[in-house]
């Protein structure tokens, strides 16, 4: 374990060389076919006749895993039969997207999925339209939205995060409510979900977004000065028209006043708390600290912020990077972080790390008592968020891929530019920041482990002194 009092040093540290992926890597036909095969395999294991995959603008990643695209503003359902036969149920303005599906589908127009007051123009009820996708009485049907309900009080997978009118129609058609269940875990269960373990093509695909988000955060932090507005700073965060997978945050002082979560015209002042978050498909980066050059500029009531919050937080962050490895259980990581950064003192509430992909948070194996092991192909965010009363936050969130030797060799062979960037990041983390990494840990952010808690001091950062 890292003893932060002895080993975490705040001193002059050269910033990482900012190199990010300038061109996205598309998912191949082979990868898309593999997606379908993995889902069909799990349907067979669960004795599921048909899987309905719901999607809307905010919750489309499971749908996109099979189709290759996600709805832009309407709702949609992908209907996959155990035979492999696939239907795509689309509203008025999404209907033409059927031709772009990465797997073969038969489209069915569902005007009920269209925007308010658009023409309905059909003579069939919603139930009849659903039935035309091959839904019959007696079938065993899984419905996948975007969320699993894991409370011990939730029995029989009968909580659904898809709209009521869809679930009601399916249950009525099947004739036995017990034959219809929430099947989101088929995609995102942290131990056995189809989407959890990625191949080299997927890791290269997602490295683009993770490296882009982190490089833009770094660019913004390098420009941050008192007197600039949140909006001026946030202007550095947009990139190439890429879609965000979370709300962009660039907030100085007290956050979300008047319930405004987007960047405002508020000016940065010395002594402010500051936090910024940017996420693209594949990864999110956050940096939080104070707008000061030294402890002397901190408000008096938080003058010990460096040692009270930031240094122990960085110890936990570095400990996470140093300990994650193939075979480690989620409970192991939970216990490791609890030993370095006790929840009772530092107030973190969520999982100390989670899986990511197209969405920022897919699911997480890292919780108390978890026997789910870290395995090759997982894409993780280190996400430990202390909350100490009276103090501003400390956060340096970024992502890593986990890859065994065979997967590392495949990435190096097929995506040499991605591999070169990953190796440069590993070298920086180990030889500049002093964070020891297992061979399977592949940084996909441009600034993994680099954290400046005093945002106006752009030469100083934390590092691990391995001599202690």
The assigned CATH architecture of the largest domain is Alpha-Beta Complex
| Global geometry | globular
Number of domains: 2
* pLDDT averaged over residues: 94
Biggest beta sheet attributes: 7 strands, antiparallel
How many strands appear in the DSSP assignment?
A: 15
- Helix-and-strand structural type: alpha+beta
* Rg, Å, rounded: 24 Å
CATH fold annotation of the largest domain: Creatine Amidinohydrolase
As residue ranges, the low-confidence spans are none
Oligomer: single chain
With helices defined by DSSP (H or I, 4 residues minimum), what is the helix count? Answer: 13
Q: Helical percent range?
A: 25-40%
CA-CA gap between termini? 12 Å
Strand percent estimate: 15-25%
CATH superfamily of the largest domain: Creatinase/methionine aminopeptidase superfamily
Question: What is the CATH level 1 assignment of the largest domain?
Answer: Alpha Beta
SSE pattern: HEHEHEEEHEHEHHHEEEHHHEEEHHEE
Description:
With 468 residues, the chain is α+β, with helices and mostly antiparallel strands. It has 2 domains: 4-25 and 196-464, Creatine Amidinohydrolase (Alpha-Beta Complex); 47-182, Creatine Amidinohydrolase, Chain A, domain 1, CATH 3.40.350. Helix content is 29%, strand content 16%. Strands 8, 9, 10, 11, 12, 13 and 14 form a 7-stranded antiparallel β-sheet that branches. A 6-stranded mixed β-sheet has the order 5-4-3-2-6-7, with helices on both faces.
